[in-house]
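Quick one, tokens below. Sequence please?
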């Protein structure tokens, strides 16, 4: 069989890893404050509310809330409670969503299968 007639085999896992850069296992896990900030920002945006509106409701500056959402500031538990209250997001939902995001990040970084034990997602 001529070289031009041979089928081409492409390892998609290697190709995707090469396209996205260094392996995620080499990168550190996100900080908890960054995860909580992302969740708060996502919730605020889902409600079509501005930083100024939520900051005013909480009694903090818009700049501080922005830094919390970007994971640059470590908010106190009281501050998280206040922001969650202003968003109508129960604090336990923030905590649970944070755990889920960290778990997914850890599974992706370590290559552990997603889903319940004994189940593995494979791409064809």
């Amino acid at each position: 069989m001529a070289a031009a007639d041979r089928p081409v085999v492409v390892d998609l896992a290697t190709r995707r890893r090469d396209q996205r850069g260094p392996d995620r296992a080499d990168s550190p896990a996100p900080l908890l404050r960054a995860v909580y900030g992302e969740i708060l920002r996502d919730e605020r945006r889902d409600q079509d509310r501005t930083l100024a509106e939520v900051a005013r409701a909480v009694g903090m500056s818009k700049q501080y809330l922005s830094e919390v959402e970007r994971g640059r500031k470590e908010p106190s538990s009281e501050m998280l409670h206040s922001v969650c209250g202003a968003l109508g997001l129960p604090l336990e939902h923030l905590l649970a969503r944070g755990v889920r995001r960290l778990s997914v990040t850890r599974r992706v970084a370590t290559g552990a299968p997603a889903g319940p034990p004994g189940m593995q997602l494979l791409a064809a």
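DSSP finds six helices and no strands in the chain. The two ends are 26 Å apart (CA to CA).
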